[in-house]
Amino acid sequence: MEVFKYKKPLSLMSKSKRFGLLSVAVLILSIGLILSKGFNYGIDFAGGTLIQVQYEGKAPIDKVRNAIDTDKAYEGATVTFFGGEDEVVIKTKMSSKNLGEDIGDKVRVLLKDTGKFEVRRVDMVGAKVGSELREQGLMAMLLAIIGILIYVSFRFEWRFAVASVMALLHDVTIAMGMIVLFNIEVNLDILAALLTILGYSLNDTIIVFDRIREGIRTIKDPDLAGIIDESVSRTLSRTTLTSLTTFFVVFTLWMFGGEIIHGFGFTLLVGIIVGTYSSIFVASPILMWLGFSVGGFREKEAEKLKREKEKEKMRAMYEKGTI
Amino acid sequence: MKTLNFRVILFAFALIFGIVFSIPSLTQSESGKKITLGLDLQGGLHMLLGIKSEIAIESRIKSMAASVKYIFDDEEIIFDELRMVDGEKITFELLDADDVKKANDLLKKELEGTVISKDGLKFSLMMTEEEIARTKQNAIKQAVDTIRNRLNEFGLAEPTVAKQGEDKILVEVPGIKTQEDEQRIRELIARAAHLQLMAVDEERIARVNTMSAEEARSYGDVILQDVKTPEKYLLRAIPVLDGSMLTDAKVGFDEGNQPVINFTLNGQGAKIFGDFTGKYVGKRMAVVLDNKVYSAPNINERIGGGRVQISGHFELSEAHDLAIALRSGALLAPVYVMEKRSVGPSLGADSIKSSSLALALGFILVIIFMFIYYGMAGVIANVALIGNLFLILAIMSLFGATLTLPGMAGIVLTVGMAVDANVIINERIRELLHMGKSIGKSIEDGYDNAFTAIWDANVTTLIAATVLYAYGTGAIKGFALTMSIGILASMLTAIVGTHGIYQWILPKIDKKKLGFWFGIKQEGAK
Fold first, then answer.
1. Residue A217's CB: how many other CB atoms inside 10 A?
2. pLDDT in tens, B429-460
3. pTM for this structure?
4. Is domain A48-125 in CATH 3.30.70.3400, yes or no?
5. In this predicted complex, what is the ipTM?
6. Is A219 exposed, middle or buried (0-12, 13-18, 19+ CB in 10 A)?
7. What is the sign, positive or negative, of the torsion defined by CA atoms of B181, A57, A115, B46?
8. Among A204, A268, A290, which Cα is nearest to B456's?
9. What is the pLDDT of residues B362-383, one digit of tens each?
């Protein structure tokens, strides 16, 4: 079966302004959302306690709320269904340092008369640990980006690196915007998903850049836009298909992986879609706008080749014993 | 006809290796190295504890004061006004100027790591900086050992207790069945088990109910409450001796068949205890545990042999846990919870079920897609994918790695990403076939051309995974780990393995059946 059969280059670069505008618009929207509404930090980053309770049959959520309200200490605690109707999650900003009787134990006592239940999960993060984790998370993002920047500059050229990192920031920012829009609770798993997007969204970009790099060497066209058009068109099937296989698995993870990794799956899903779009429509135009010169690159490559040839010649002469 | 090439042999080895070493994990057999399930999958308690090391310093100072008192009493040096100040130094005053040199020499000899400063007859003792640092380190090391001993004695399977960073303790206890059990375990860990035998201040105790804490302190006393009743006791602040001199603690029963704890003191402790009880016959001595008075019996006679009993109307389980805590020693400094995650066994089982379902479905979707889209080329990629899965399991088993819920997600993700390499390769081969190249040439050039893109893409993903591993905690580390192993394994299976298979079966590939082999329409390939 073949879907994307290459016939002639699509003229993408001539439309790059339109895609650029679309991206900028979505980016502004995302940043606006992040700044105005802000992340809904879960207990991993904000500190607090989460208690997951499963009932036999439908959970009596009103009774649970009433029971929790009887203790003033739990003011502002939220009770919501979790996954199915038989489970509820109680969240509070409180955490206790006490090792003996903690918030989970107290809630267990409060819920005594609400029916037959089992406390299945109690997560508690102190406020200090939460803020430490948040700092670490930001640091991790930054380090990953720097690492990738260095690697891509080393393998390609600095403009490729800058373009790929800009595409990357584009993807992560939009993914963050979606997280805010859909009110996904931000915990450690979401950070893991964002870091995975960092690594993954680059995969597609690199497939395209690799082909552009190859195109610069083999395609006669001196015009970068032409080379990009042809390279992107030729890699179109690869870019979309590799994303498709990953999309399949992430989709099943999101659908069937269970409530706990729902947010994780969602973030990855957004990341894969945006990442695929950006490697086709965003990364390459940036390369062009950065003033990448085909001629310059070719000259450098030629020089490199010349040096290597000379080296080989010397070696050959040396082996023959002429030096 | 071409014989087996090194690539396909390597792949076959990898496949056999993968299957052999993943069998113990898949069958959950008793023998052989296997993957351990993370606490989020098998259920259990994960805690990060902090430690109040300043309390350890304070109690060091306290025991220093007790030593001073004991040494001076022994040598008949008369002193007065022995006090602890701000929990960081002790002061006292000698009454006889002739004793100054003797006292100074004795203190220097007996108390290591102490700064002694004196002003006339007034002495003040402080710990040296190194001694403070050493005490802090000691407190955390001792807390780790103590908590480990307690959990081991409780009879739990494979608890993990480890120092994390400079001043944190990681505690992981798998296999806890109920929340009530978990609470009992937490209480056992939290128990300071700080045992003190203290003299009752018989002169002033009549006024204890009206006395303030400050007033008590001014007499060198402390007010402590009974463990069960609201009764208050006025006790000498510097204890006769503490739990550090205890050698054993066992649950026993008294005449009324009530559980009690019998404990034995070491030689030094027995001597101090004997001397004290001999000197204070007719007075009371309080058995104090974690700053609660358990009993305050009258001393009827000198008690030798160093055997002491604590009775306090215990439940049997309470006495049992308390004896464990006493035996494994006191916590030099109290611990507190910084982070706690506890998962019930049924939730863990549900997580395994749902993530396995996602893995199976994702796997089937990818396999079907690859077959429909690429024909036999897809089947070859699928063989590599299966090899990849086994290899991940085998490597994790050999290292005894822990599989967490995010780790499962990492494996699912790897399934999608490992075939990416084959998609890139197959697309290249198709492209070359369309250009009219021979099948053999298309395959070789396809692999050559695809390699750099696959390599670069994998390295960048690995960079992100490494950072995640370095900065991630607990379960998230599991995600970074499985994804990294998956990517590395895919280099072997998806690139080398499939290449080998192509080379092996190349003679059998019918150039008239490109649709069957590569899923493309016939275009008169040569």
1. 12
2. 988 888 888 888 889 999 998 888 888 888 88
3. 0.78
4. yes
5. 0.82
6. middle
7. positive
8. A204
9. 999 999 999 999 989 999 999 9
Using alpha carbons, list the distances in angstroms from residue B104 to A16, B44, B87, B448.
87, 54, 22, 83
- β-partners of residue A90 are A51, A79
Chain-centre distance of CA B139, in angstroms? 16
Q: Under DSSP, is residue A222 helix (H, G, I), strand (E, B) or coil?
A: coil
Amino acid type, A180: V
CB of B357 within 8 Å of any CB in chain A? Answer: yes
Angle between helices A103-110 and A61-69 (to 10 degrees): 120
Do residue B476 and residue A191 have CB atoms under 8 angstroms apart? yes
* A146, amino acid identity: I
Residues 263-282 of A with CB under 8 A from B: 264-265, 268
- By the 8 A CB rule, do B453 and A207 touch? yes
C-alpha angle with apex B329: B328 to B335, nearest 5 degrees? 100
Element (H, E) at B124: strand B122-127
Residue to mutate among A198, A255, A261, with most B CBs inside 10 A, is A261
Instruction: Sort out which chain B residues have CB atoms less than 8 A from A101's CB and list them.
Output: 183, 187
Whole-angstrom CA distances from B82 to A217, A244, B70 are 88, 78, 12
Write phi, then psi, for B394 (nearest 5 degrees). -65, -45
Which domains can be identified in chain B, with CATH numbers?
A: 6-41+344-518 (1.20.1640.10), 44-154+330-343 (3.90.1070.10), 194-327 (3.30.1360.200)
Q: Do B431 and A120 touch (CB under 8 A)?
A: no
C-alpha distances in Å from residue B497, one per residue of B11, B380, B488: 5, 9, 13
May I ask the CATH class of domain A13-40+130-292?
A: mainly alpha
Say yes or no: B465 contacts chain A, CB-CB below 8 A.
yes
Amino acid occupying residue B511: K
Domain ranges of chain A: 13-40+130-292, 48-125
**What are B235's strand-pairing partners?**
B200, B222
Find chain B residues with C-beta within 8 A of A99's C-beta: 47, 49, 186-187, 189-190, 335-337
Chain A interface disruption, residue of B147, B340, B419, B431, most A CBs within 10 A: B340
